[in-house]
UniProtKB/TrEMBL annotation, chains A, B:
Required co-factors: FAD
InterPro entries: Alkyl-DHAP_Synthase, FAD-bd_oxidored_4_C, FAD-bd_PCMH, FAD-bd_PCMH-like_sf, FAD-bd_PCMH_sub1, FAD-bd_PCMH_sub2, FAD-linked_Oxase-like_C, Oxid_FAD_bind_N
Gene Ontology molecular function terms on file: alkylglycerone-phosphate synthase activity; FAD binding
Protein name: FAD/FMN-containing dehydrogenase
Domain FAD-binding PCMH-type as annotated: residue spans: 84-264
Entry keyword set: FAD, Flavoprotein
Gene3D superfamilies: 3.30.300.330, 3.30.465.10, 3.30.70.3450, Uridine Diphospho-n-acetylenolpyruvylglucosamine Reductase, domain 2, Vanillyl-alcohol Oxidase, Chain A, domain 4
Family in the record: Belongs to the FAD-binding oxidoreductase/transferase type 4 family.
Active site residues according to the UniProt entry: Y448
Site label Important for enzyme activity, positions: R299
Length: 538, 538
């Protein structure tokens, strides 16, 4: 059973070892766990539905609460502290594109607000409901979760837009194929959600981002269907796929998604290496990316994250031995951990790994073999479960990510961590901030910073204020360094303020014009991408 | 000096050997060369300019004629037969983005029609002028041809949008870099033109299409500037770059283009192989593309093109020996020529070529070494010069291209050739039609068909009619097979009729909406992409 107020399935927990607890206590002071609100207490507080009875729409409080919040820190503390925001008035569970069409026609004619839902994993406020006079309908796509067509010659697979990652892969694997799109939210996030938020998976170095994987499909918009045919490439004017990608439910609801798949690889392995310090490590991954070696993953932790990961790993004695060995090989206190993935036919994998190790040696890397890499692969989707564990110990976690060209990577990484520390310093609260680069490109890199801090006493308000202060401070640094509002989590409501820094005023007007074009009554997911549709509860 | 009514520089000619002449005579009958119109006769027929005097605008007939026509077959016969269409009333030669801004503001306020010009190599009618009451201003960007900024860390280079391919490469090579974008029009076509028509280069397998190379830039639109920042990747809403790509002058004028460059490769070589027949050849290139071997080019000629190329090569005795050797190795009358390019560091090149040859052997390929490949590389931009030579011998040439998913490739290729044959049969005219795949993708391939036929006596009208019949017949086959309106030549006016088959009615309305958004007075390049802005001279 999926947790209603935390990440993932109730049967799965991640434990914190002694060393990790000690590190947290030392850096952040002892955590003070609070009392969580109960789902049963929230449900009766959900107001009566303002939606008409309709055979496709359910009005029960339980369904409505389940689609009303996502996985952002704000959503998390709303649930944990029982700070109930507006939730949809009803939830539809369409099973076909035709039913989505019916629902949209109804909503369009009645001026209902429509908020699409699928995996519910947004960390950017994509599910926020405005304080509106108009009824709000959630369209929950989770029943549209099947492989509809497989073309083995062109390597194309068509899925219902609500198919979650696990089911995408299970249905493809049964036939010998993979999509290869593995965001950390993979267990729950869906192929349609990936497209409309421009998601990126852990092995994007091989498979590409969802932009490269999305071959076509169908979007129902308030003014009619937009059908995107599959083509290997075209010079036939602006690419309408690229308008659907990142549309975040503003233009319509994606119902079918055709993706570019691959035969299951002959070989896949993950390897750990250490580099002596940040400068050599950054130069090394940049060189690998710019040489375009056929690797599938490069994930570089900075010094603090490296230390944190080694502490989290447990096995104190073994890790101690490793640290001494690494120090002897030149990777001491400033060392940085690089996880490298190779996914290819056997001959290409051998070539790529050999060339990568040669290149990395030139930058002082020490290779410690595949064991740590294999362990990473086993736990690759478990990271978010730690958030549950930390909360129970009295600590909060959030992540902020961006991407920027190489000359700004190091300074922006430092600025993001430092802005976080200064933000919490205003509240006299310590924070543990650390960073990795998980998607490297010839041109630059993503930057993914994580922040852990002691949850404040006093419930929702003080914790929400701390989080807003953090987000604002880090976003300002990102904008000042020319980074994107988001590399992989989308804009939602949480980043909409800053989008103008990236798109410019004419760019923002263009997006607003597209909203009016597809959605003349302004019913689709207001407040996401653009700052419209309010007021809001907070 | 560039030819005014043919391809390329006057100092360069391609000769046809005896064998090629014989083949043409045998297949098409003897060509009957006609008398070309003279530039001096056309110039006095250009009407007086309707544009105001302005320091940035020139009104002389010579400048106006030079920007009034492109390189489509229709443009070609207009020039050759002296069928003068409307040409712009004046030509501006801006040297900066500010001057482009000034010109657009002026045109916007005066409701002048604006047609951007740079390389003048369009083969899709991008330069056509409507029969309009409104004055027409050509904005010629050829003076904006410099490398403006080079970022060696992020491998980004910013050029004036009017920089032609040769100057892009020359300026990069001087610093040890390459863009790697080599369309056949490379000598004249420009980086800005590539972006707004979604161009593809011969080595797109390594470097990507211009979509992948275009990192950002600046477009001046009638309602203000659209600035596209460079970012390695982003999930921040719809990608506005993808609206500029393929915009064909409808939304504004691109002034600066930042592209993703590469260090000059350690190794580059081209290799010729033969496969026994089409089915084995298609399966082979599909396997190579789907294995994602790091090759830089795969160019597969069908049986008729293979035969034609071998005849065009001259060296009858040598080719005869080669044919006998190939037949002995299993590549007889149905053989297909594959040109394969490898561009990489030496180790990767060795790996890729080795693996590719192994894969190709499994499909019955015979490798004949790099000599023919090197010869191809030397002449890689000379193909269009043959058009001059053929014209002088009394023959016309045109090319039609598309891309489609793999299951349709073979049948569409046959249908394109057959539709051409049937189109000319209506006029009792023979045609020599042959095809290659020049851009292969895991999902499908481009298809590039060439047609050679005897130029009809009687001047412009009968030849224009034949050409229109050909284009229409082939376009219908492309649409019926689900192919794109164009893989690499853009839409222009020539393919605008068929764009709705690909974009659908809501897609077309979206493009029209974007036109109105950026260009509320409808001054920008009318009739291109969308069928508006007429009437037209033909």
């Amino acid at each position: 059973m999926r947790r209603w107020n935390g990440w993932g399935d109730e049967s799965t927990s991640m434990n914190l070892g002694e060393g990790a607890r000690a590190m947290l206590a030392q850096r952040l002071g002892p955590g003070q766990p609070g009392q969580d609100a109960k789902r049963e207490d929230l449900l009766p507080r959900i107001p009566a539905s303002r939606l008409l009875e309709h055979p496709l729409i359910q009005h029960d409080a339980s369904s409505r609460l389940a689609v009303g919040l996502g996985e952002s820190y704000a959503d998390w503390i709303r649930k944990r502290f029982g700070q109930l925001p507006p939730v949809p008035d009803g939830v539809a569970f369409p099973e076909s594109g035709e039913q989505v069409r019916t629902l949209l026609d109804l909503a369009h004619s009645q001026r209902w607000i429509v908020i699409p839902f699928a995996g519910g994993t947004s960390v950017s406020g994509h599910l926020d409901c405005p304080l509106s006079e108009r009824p709000i309908l959630s369209v929950n796509l989770t029943r549209m979760n099947r492989l509809l067509h497989l073309d083995k010659t062109s390597l194309l697979a068509t899925f219902g837009a609500g198919t979650p990652g696990q089911q995408v892969e299970a249905q493809l694997r049964a036939q010998g194929y993979t999509l290869g799109h593995f965001p950390q939210s993979f267990e729950y996030s869906t192929v349609g959600g990936w497209v409309v938020t421009r998601s990126s998976g852990q092995q994007s170095l091989r498979y590409g981002r969802i932009e490269q994987l999305f071959a076509g499909g169908r979007m129902e918009t308030p003014v009619g269907p937009l059908v995107l045919p599959t083509l290997p490439a075209a010079s036939a004017g602006p690419d309408l796929r690229e308008i659907v990608l990142g549309s975040e439910g503003r233009f319509g609801i994606l119902t079918e998604v055709t993706v570019r798949i691959s035969p299951l690889p002959e070989h896949e392995s993950f390897h750990a290496l250490f580099l002596p310090d940040w400068d050599s490590a950054e130069a090394a991954v940049r060189a690998l990316a710019q040489r375009r070696l056929p690797l599938s993953m490069l994930r570089l932790s900075n010094r603090i994250e490296t230390e944190t990961n080694l502490t989290l790993a447990g096995h104190e004695r073994l890790i101690g031995l490793l640290q001494r060995y690494l120090a002897w090989r030149g990777c001491g206190a400033n060392k940085c951990l690089l996880m490298l993935g190779v996914t290819a036919d056997s001959a290409t994998a051998r070539h790529a790994l050999g060339e990568a190790r040669r290149e990395l040696r030139r930058h002082g890397a020490v290779y410690i073999g595949p064991a740590m890499g294999s362990k990473w692969a086993v736990n690759r989707f478990k990271g978010p479960y730690l958030r549950n564990t930390l909360w129970d110990q009295g600590y909060s976690v959030d992540t902020i990510e961006t991407a920027v060209d190489w000359p700004q990577v190091k300074s922006l990484m430092h600025a993001m961590e430092q802005a976080g520390r200064e933000a919490f310093a205003r509240f006299g609260t310590p924070v543990h901030a650390f960073t990795h680069l998980s998607h490297v490109y010839p041109q630059g890199s993503s930057i993914y910073s994580q922040y852990v801090w002691p949850t404040a006493p006093g419930g929702f308000a003080p914790n929400f204020e701390r989080w807003q202060t953090l987000k604002r401070a880090v976003a300002e640094q990102i904008a000042a360094h020319g980074g994107t509002v988001s590399h992989q989590h989308g804009v939602g409501r949480d980043h909409a303020t800053h989008l103008v820094d990236e798109k410019g005023p004419l760019g923002m007007a263009t997006l607003a014009g597209l909203c009016r074009h597809f959605d003349p009554h302004g019913i689709m997911n207001p407040g996401k991408l653009l700052q419209d549709g309010g007021p809001w509860a907070d």
